[in-house]
Write a structure and sequence with these properties.
heterodimer; A: alpha/beta; Rossmann fold; 7-stranded parallel β-sheet; 5-stranded parallel β-sheet; 11 helices; 24% strand; B: 13 strands
Amino acid sequence: MARVAVEDRGAWKGVWVFAEQRQGELNSVAIELLGEGKKLANDIGTDLSAILLGENVGDLAKELIAYGADKVYVADDALLKDYTTDAYTEVIDQAIRKYQPEIVLLGATHIGRDLGPRIAKRTTTGLTADCTHLDYDTNKYMEFLHGITSATVSQDRIDANKENLKMTRPAFGGNLMATIICPATRPQMATVRPGVMDKAVKDESRTGEIIKLDYKLTADDIHTKILEIVKSTEKKVNLTDAEIVVSGGAGLGSADGFKLMQEFADTVGGVVGASRAAVDAGWIDHSHQVGQTGTTVKPKIYFACGISGAIQHLAGMQDSDIIVAINKSSIAPIFEVADYGIVGDLYKIVPMLIEAFKEYKAEA
Amino acid sequence: MKILVCAKQVPNTKNVTTDPVTGRINREGVESILNPDDANALEAALEIKDKDPENVHVTVISMGPDQAKEMLNECLAMGADDAILLSDRRFGGSDTWATSNAIAAGMAKVGDYDLILGGRQAIDGDTAQVGPQIAEKLGIPQVTYAEDIKIDGKTVTVKRQLEDGYEIIEVQMPCFITCVAELNTPRYMNVGGIIEAYDHPERITTWSFDDVDIKQEETGLKASPTNVFTSFAPAPKGAGVMLEGTDQEMVDQLMASLKEKHYI
């Protein structure tokens, strides 16, 4: 076990983020990780690095520097063109052992959640899944904690964990929040929910260092074969970046209800979301799902239409700037998080809203 | 062919309520269930067995308290051949790293497995880490987020779900596959199976810490690299405004507020 004695922690330096790319395009979560990683690096007083694997990814390395990476560790190799668990684990594990970063962050995507646990196990360290808040600085953490709960932590415990990353995540289906630490091993690893952290700001004038990784990897190390990668033929649902989300739930009553949701979304320039109930009923594809097991969104306006507001749904949208809830039942839990609540029949209210937005646009 | 299925007994977090005053979870009356994604993994195993019942053996493996036998009986009543429960206080308090060591030790003791199936994640922790970490400990390949599985001899072809599509991955046994809800619809327990499961408690084997090849520094609370610093109820947002009046009046008030506050 890679336990690291307190006096040897100093050898583990720097914040790393995994720069996930697919088909040569950076995943937006990588830019969010750079934004968050920079804050942590500043609090620690260390530098921020990205680790980038792929083939012909030189341009991406420059992009990562523009987004704030002080260093980019690059493995450019035909064997790394597309993500495979075996190849990526092997190369990143070797890099971690060689360069000894203090913190390693990955996006909690279908790739990051496949890769993170495998690396942590091989490196013999802890990994915290799906984090929604990270702090290194203890004062900032206590400020965060006091802002949302009366729960507190003893001074001894705070003092003992000054140099440990405080990793906060929802647990128990979003019913509970837990802050996790990884005190005795290094690096401290976390996967971070996409769409939660603020993106880094691009500055083309920034400079940084590109370091070519030295590693051992052969085709025999890779035990899976990718036969095909297929992008969904349906229009890509980009809930994460949407400024307005129009979500429908069980209250729609049928798949047809999503036609009205689509019309509403088209009128306001938004994207259609859905509750788990609507997805489970087969009314709409899973890619539209907002919530703990779907996508986390924080648009400027979130319209919840016929959504009762199960905790697992709230976990994915409660940070929206403005929440408008339309529901037949005045006691639906969604009204507890809503900024504006309308008790009524969504099939009457939504068409009125569509008209109102059309008039508003015509005036503007 | 020997298939191992990882299953976890979990509280049904969908039906959990929190006390509005204390912000604590009301644990009373929360039922324990077979983790939903694990039911999909078991169904996938049983569908493979349906095609060749004589030559496919399905063993369910779990870690937890004695109470988890209820869930294992449910798995047997669905059609699993037998089950193993790893149960010992010395496994208690394990994080994903330490849990995967214990379960991998149980699997190593079984030894002659060809295929291991598990759910993508458990609904109490939602980490999705234990499956890949078992695969790493056993030194076998993994494919996660399986929404379709095809078997041809020792070759497994998996349709792996991605956020923006899917990929088709080919892998050789032995391997570890984690399953998502889109893979299948789990069957119900059959009545004969329920009776049989309770009549034959010997179909569940319980292994303690001493029954498997593991050291205390590999499992349990103290061995776990991560631990809980603090836990608390999520913050409720400040109360909003309930609009009043006729439908049209409420819509007008909403539009006026959104304009006034420059949201549109």
